[in-house]
Write a structure and sequence with these properties.
It is found in: Nucleus. By secondary structure, the protein is of the alpha+beta class. The chain contains 14 helices and 8 strands. The chain binds a DNA duplex (16 and 16 nucleotides) through helix 10 and helix 13.
DNA sequence: TTCTTATTTCCTGCTT
DNA sequence: TAAGCAGGAAATAAGA
């Protein structure tokens, strides 16, 4: 393996093919799995859309080897780097291993052209997630510190600043799926001062809005999505409620988040509309199952406790929930919500209870596709 | 258009 | 005390 070098400039498609032999993210029915030869031709849009920059939504510390490969592939493409000198042995590390590398180590491994580029990109991803993982009090404190600093400089306070150009623009940007927000591209050029009323209601409530209007995404370890402003909702759909302490906060409306506009929807939703039946992997239990039956793609997220009995355990529950949220284009998914959906499967006997064991579930008689016999038979 | 399904969200109470 | 579990209630998107 270590002697195997990439013979030509890497593309996302052939990288994915090399590593897994199957399309990324949403596994296919074994019986209808396209062959490796036909896959690239028959499912180019699907493959590229579904695998495209998935890693961007995941904390680099949670990246699997595949995410790392995807990330490297993107940079190879964007820098027009000649990948013929790149050994695949260096592309098999996962996120935690990658995060431990220094800039010099990256240059040593990836060369003076690609190395610094990758290092900078990694730092940006890490910074983004470190900011997102700040707790609400931490964000409040940071905002206050910055406020006093800006106040001394006669700058407008953060609580009165909105990033963007107009109400309309803000509304639209909140409704868009935010794949591409990036702290490094943030400038203060397009600021707008809010009226007192506005700042009092929506934007000055720093406990509800991320700094600079960025999402205050829950960290992987946080349990609740309540403090997390949902991008998918326009502000008007939120309900202002009073908490026990008398402070007002925005409350997400119940139910499934509104569907994203067509231009932002992924191909899986498009294809599910065309097809009479939802594609394999659409349901939560299938998503979970597919993580379990492709351990090489999801190292450390879940594990079998008893493969024959279908007993499994979440190892990184919030990370799995975030992945599910990404799949469903719902940035506020948490393990708490995911587990509620899991519990509904008990009634349908897709899952069975495992009493007394946290994070442990068992596939029920109405689930399929996880048994060793089924898999070896290609069912 | 209505109904059904599969979640998603919020909540309270309990257990570990 | 925090995290996880259990399950009711209400809501929504999407398919039938």
């Amino acid at each position: 393996m270590s002697s195997l070098c990439l013979s030509s400039v890497l593309t996302r498609a052939n990288l994915t093919m090399y590593q897994t032999g199957i399309p990324d993210v949403v596994p296919q029915q074994p019986s209808v799995l396209p062959s490796i030869n036909t896959l690239q031709i028959s499912t180019p849009v699907y493959s590229s859309n579904m695998s495209s920059q998935w890693y961007r939504h995941i904390n680099p510390h949670y990246w699997t080897a595949e995410h790392v490969l995807e990330w490297i592939s993107d940079h190879v493409e964007s820098t027009k780097f000649d990948a013929s000198t790149l050994s695949l042995a260096y592309c098999t590390m996962d996120g935690p291993a990658l995060c431990q590398m220094s800039r010099d180590q990256m240059i040593g491994v990836f060369g003076s052209q690609l190395g610094p580029h990758l290092h900078q990109s990694l730092q940006e991803h890490k910074t983004k997630y470190e900011l997102q993982s700040l707790s609400v009090p931490e964000l409040d404190e940071t905002c206050q510190l910055l406020d006093s600093f800006l106040d001394n400089l006669n700058f407008p306070l953060l609580s009165t600043i909105r990033i963007g150009q107009s109400e309309e623009a803000v509304s639209k940007s909140e409704f868009d799926y935010r794949d591409d927000y990036d702290l490094t591209s943030l400038t203060m050029g397009d600021t707008e001062y809010l009226s007192d009323n506005q700042s009092d209601s929506e934007y000055s409530s720093s406990s509800n809005s991320g700094m600079f209007g960025f999402p205050n995404l829950d960290s992987p370890e946080s349990g609740s999505g309540e403090s997390d402003p949902e991008f998918s909702y326009p502000p008007i759909s939120k309900v202002n409620i009073k908490t026990e302490k008398g402070e007002s906060r925005l409350k997400r409306p119940r139910g499934r988040p509104p569907k994203l506009s067509r231009e932002h929807s992924s191909s899986i939703y498009d294809s599910s509309k065309k097809n009479k039946h939802a594609p394999r992997g659409t349901h939560l239990w299938e998503f979970i199952r597919d993580i379990l039956i492709h351990p090489e793609k999801n190292q450390g997220l879940m594990k079998w406790e008893d493969r024959r009995e279908g007993v499994f355990k979440f190892l990184k529950s919030e990370a799995v929930a975030q992945m599910w949220g990404q799949k469903k284009k719902n940035s506020s998914m948490t393990y708490e919500k995911l587990s509620r959906a899991m519990r509904y499967y008990y009634k349908r006997e897709i899952l069975e209870r495992v009493d007394g064991r946290r994070l442990v579930y068992k596939f029920g008689k109405n689930s399929s596709g996880w048994k060793i016999e089924e898999m070896s038979m290609g069912i």
